[in-house]
Amino acid sequence: MRRTLIAWMVCLLVAVAMCLPMLAAESATSAVGKSIAAFSLQDFRGKQVALGDFPEAKAVVVVFLGVECPLAKLYGPRLMELAEAYQAQGVQFIGIDSNRQDSITELAAYARAHGIEFPVLKDAGNVVADQFGAQRTPEVFLLDAERVVRYHGRIDDQYGFTTGGGYARPEIRHRDLAAALDALLAGQPVTTTETEVPGCIIGRIKTPQADAPVTYSNQIARILQERCAECHRPGQIAPFSLTSYDEVVGWAEMIDEVVRDNRMPPWHADPHYGHFSNDARLTPEQLQQIHDWVAAGAPEGDRAELPEPREYVTGWQMPFEPDQVVYMSDEAYHVPAEGVVDYQYFTVDPGFTEDKWLKTAECVPGNRGVVHHIIVFARPPESRAKDARGFHFVAGFAPGTRPFVFPDGMAKLIPAGSKLIFQMHYTPNGTPQDDRSSIGLKFTDAKGVTHRVATDRAINHNFRIPAGDPNYEVTARRKFLDDALILAYFPHMHLRGKSFRYIAELPDGSSEIVLDVPRYDFNWQNHFILSQPRKMPAGSAIRCIAHFDNSADNLANPDPQSDVLWGDQTFEEMMIGWFDIAVPYDPAHPGGEVTTDDGDSTGE
After folding, report:
1. Helix (H), strand (E) counts: the chain
2. Backbone phi, then psi, for 530, in 5-degree steps?
3. Best CA proximity match to 59, nearest among 181, 229, 197
4. Of the four, 88, 110, 168, 349, which is 20 to 30 A from 409 by CA?
5. What pLDDT, on a 0 to 100 scale, did the predictor assign at position 388?
6. Each residue of 100-159: pLDDT tens digit?
7. 291: exposed, middle or buried (C-beta count within 10 Å: 0-12, 13-18, 19+)?
């Protein structure tokens, strides 16, 4: 589950991925108008800091933080900017970490990484969080000179969580905290006193049920080991680890929230259609065990019942060493601490002097903290196209994807003289970062190839999504001129993508839904690998139906007031129904071209 925010954003869950029940639903009463009693906590240096230490402050901003929460990381630099901007006007900022899983050492590292100079305090036992009624991080309380709450909510609306991970608006639309500060300092009433708070649930101290039938040791550790720790472990893409009880217990409520809403693990296919070898869903029994465990206070149980530690692959995820590794560039790309980074493209000559038959390929992020996804295309010498229409899809990476090893006898052809095009999508995580990603290529001998694999697509460039439209439909169709086997599906849209469906249309006039993604999530870019290849006879077709949400209700929408056309960048849109197919190939009689043809493609 680990993700860069915005990825991961991550990570994860951002790695990292996590979403948005609103604070209003979590708190029975409003915090606004509440008088805050004096409190005193230690900072990460051991110094005692009290609310009463700032008697001259005209206002105090108290913000609850978590060192591993993707949003708290993104907002770290911005909080320091606000603290500096309002310091001369008599405003004091105070950060508080109430998470049981966050150590003093981690808190110190967080403050250093984001250049935070205002006090950052450790709330052991979540006493002060309970006093404020704080639920999530980052969550802000603005206190006036009398230390009465005048604003409660988010910092601004640029970053947040949606169905599976984070989103980042190109620009801030509502500077909620700054607007409240300006009004308070001017002696005016605060217009918007409360806003919804996206963020990570604070990991409070719990009282476990002594005789709970489900414990961390006897059940939960096994579920996390099987389904989550591949990403949620040190050095991987998720924003925090889930490999020990002390770490997991602080995230218990957050885990329950994201799995019950099917946001984690990242799998978005409707189970009624198709069978896939990489299905990442939890079973109903596992979901219930997690819920029961959290409801019982997240008991640890008997450590003797813990599963044996699992050995994870630490290098290449493909089952063999690559024959060639190609880096996206000679120099690292510099990723800023925050904001939105347009897609970056890097062209590399891998030096292919002869045709190459590819058994598998694996894209590897150089910096998993900021790489949202990678797509590598091969551009044959005769192609001069400036977009993916003239390129051959080689491989991709996004949180949750695994390298696709083609079945025995199947391989993908990369013609001699081809260049490799890296399409890189970066999501800042709160501190400046560098990345130099790569792709590993595993080749096979053409003599053993019985089927040529290609990544084809039903694609539609000709659409205009109207401003404000919440459910705009775009279709595309690809016809098979010869018999073929479908191996996998890979739907692709951008931030306004809402749903995506593949339909197999057969020569006898019948049709069947073969993949349905009712809640598409740009943060994950899932590759749906069929458990068994699907036969597509000559004359059949794949029809793709996509829906886009260009309304203001789509929190990830960069600009709901503008029509949207096809384009490479995430603030534009794409409609591509990628699919991997295989056709018979005879090395003695080269050819074996993948023969498909465009059908009708419409934006309706």
Report:
1. 9, 33
2. -65, 140
3. 181
4. 349
5. 45
6. 999 999 999 999 999 999 999 999 999 999 999 999 999 999 999 999 999 999 999 988
7. middle
User: Is the alpha carbon torsion for 483, 361, 369, 530 positive or negative?
Assistant: positive
Q: Are 579 and 532 in contact (CB under 8 A)?
A: no
Report how far residue 246's alpha carbon sits from residue 84's, in angstroms, rounded to the nearest whole number: 36
**Tokens 């605060």 -> residue:** 190
Can you say how many angstroms the Cα of residue 389 is from the centroid of all Cα atoms in its chain? 26
CB proximity list for 590: less than 8 A, separation 6 or greater: none
Please classify residue 210 by burial: count the beta carbons closer than 10 Å to its beta carbon, then call 0-12 exposed, 13-18 middle and 19+ buried. Answer: exposed
CA angle 16, 18, 23 (to 5 degrees): 140
Task: Give the whole-angstrom CA distance, residue 83 versus residue 190.
Answer: 19
Query: Cα separation of 344 and 341, whole Å?
Result: 8
pLDDT digits (tens, 9 = 90+) for 68-80: 998 999 899 999 9
Report, in angstroms and rounded to the nearest whole number, the Rg of the chain calculated over CA atoms: 26
Contact 245, 18 (CB under 8 A): no
The model scores a pTM over 0.70? yes
- Determine the pLDDT at residue 429: 79
Neighbours of 32 (CB within 10 A): 16
Can you say whether the dihedral through the CA atoms of 176, 125, 249, 297 is positive or negative?
A: negative
pLDDT less than 50: residues of the chain: 1-28, 384-389, 592, 603-604
Token code pair at residue 507: 């020569």
DSSP element (H, E) containing 285: helix 284-295
Segment (H or E) for 542: strand 541-548
DSSP state of 306: P
The pLDDT assigned to 13 comes to 33
Residues in the chain: 604
CA torsion sign for 377, 355, 528, 542 is positive
For the chain, the straight-line distance linking the first and the last C-alpha, in angstroms and rounded, comes to 36
Report the C-alpha gap between 376 and 438 in whole angstroms.
9
Q: How far is CA 346 from CA 80, 328, 329, 421, 425, in A?
A: 34, 6, 7, 6, 12
Instruction: Give the residue among 429, 558, 536, 418 at the shortest CA–CA distance from 482.
Output: 536
Given its phi and psi angles, is residue 86 left (phi above 0), alpha (psi -120 to 50 degrees) or beta?
alpha
Distance CA 459, CA 457 (A): 6
Kindly state the tokens that stand for 360. Answer: 């598998």
Strand pairing report for 120-122 and 91-97 = parallel
What contacts 382, CB < 8 A, 6 or more positions away?
Answer: none
Q: Cβ(30)–Cβ(152) under 8 Å?
A: yes
What pLDDT does 492 receive? 93
Quickly list DSSP for 372-415.
EEEEEEEE-TT---SSGGGSEEEEEE-TT----PPPTTEEEEE-
CB atoms within 10 A of CB 468: 16
CA distances from 275 to 196, 408, 487 (A): 38, 20, 11
pLDDT given for residue 398 in this prediction: 78
